[in-house]
């Protein structure tokens, strides 16, 4: 034993102590107060089944702060959700890479606005097309419009521009240039649309062909609206979709936590930045 201790350069007493110690495998780690968080976590998951543990943590901590209680760590929420089978399945699909050109995120509000449109299909094969514009800093959907079983027209785009400027600046002439980032759709590149943008003080920017990442803010909103709202609703026809849209977008702006905003909602971020 002495020779072994000298070879390993450790004390002989330490080796004797380790020989007499039985190593017990560590089981699942839990805390006594975990059960107190479970009902609130389960309620959030039941209401928002597409949310991962980070957004669940953000909503849970929002409730705890309102009650004047200490917040909880995201890893603890993940552990509780894993123990009770409340986590999402891992996403394993791979997607082909595409070129990302240009800067999308803005450091301040009302510097760059991102516009795009999406389609939501009902069970009876009717389709609703939604046109929207959001801020590249605070992510709030400034304004939007929707039409059933019809295409996006240039008039809709121009009305969207006027409404967005009025809601953010209270006037039809903005005090400084604001970039309007969108795709190359015919309604957006029309001459009348360019004239309207110029009159309002908007600078039109267009994404490269086959590069949706160049308008990643809009793409993220499209993905969120379909995944967290449309996917978990029963959409029988276009009228149902049109009736649900106002509540969806209001919830997205007021409640939905965004990772890019430190898991605050857009309007929560705006209020804290004011």
TrEMBL record:
Gene Ontology molecular function: any one: nucleic acid binding
SUPFAM superfamilies, alphabetized: Ribonuclease H-like (SSF53098)
Source organism superkingdom: Bacteria
Protein name (Swiss-Prot/TrEMBL): Integrase
Pfam families recorded: HTH_21, rve
GO BP terms in the entry: DNA integration
PANTHER family named among the record's database cross-references: BLR2054 PROTEIN, LOW CALCIUM RESPONSE LOCUS PROTEIN T
InterPro entries: HTH-like_dom, Integrase_cat-core, RNaseH-like_sf, RNaseH_sf, Transpos_IS3
Domain Integrase catalytic: 92-274
């Amino acid at each position: 034993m002495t020779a072994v201790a000298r070879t390993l350069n450790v004390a002989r007493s330490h080796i004797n102590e380790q020989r007499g110690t039985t190593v017990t495998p560590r089981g699942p780690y839990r805390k006594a107060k975990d059960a107190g968080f479970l009902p609130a976590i389960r309620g959030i998951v039941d209401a928002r089944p597409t949310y991962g543990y980070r957004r669940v943590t953000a909503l849970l901590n929002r409730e705890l702060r309102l009650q004047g209680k200490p917040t909880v760590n995201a890893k603890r929420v993940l552990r509780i959700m894993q123990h009770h089978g409340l986590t999402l399945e891992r996403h394993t699909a791979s997607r082909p890479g595409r070129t990302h050109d240009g800067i999308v995120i803005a450091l301040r509000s009302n510097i760059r606005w991102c516009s795009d449109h999406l389609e939501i299909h009902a069970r009876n094969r009717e389709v609703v097309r939604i046109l929207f514009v959001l801020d590249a800093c605070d992510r709030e959907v400034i304004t939007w419009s929707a039409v059933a079983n019809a295409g996006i027209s240039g008039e809709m785009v121009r009305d969207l521009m006027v409404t967005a400027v009025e809601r953010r600046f209270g006037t039809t002439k903005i005090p400084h240039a604001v970039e309007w980032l969108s795709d190359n759709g015919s309604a957006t590149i029309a001459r009348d649309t360019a004239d309207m943008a110029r009159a309002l003080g908007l600078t039109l920017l267009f994404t490269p062909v086959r590069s949706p990442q160049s308008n990643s803010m809009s793409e993220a909103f499209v993905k969120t609206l379909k995944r967290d709202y449309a996917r978990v609703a029963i959409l029988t026809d276009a009228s149902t979709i049109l009736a649900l849209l106002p509540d969806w977008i209001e919830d997205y702006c007021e409640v939905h936590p965004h990772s890019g905003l430190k898991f605050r909602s857009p309007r929560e971020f705006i209020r804290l930045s004011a």
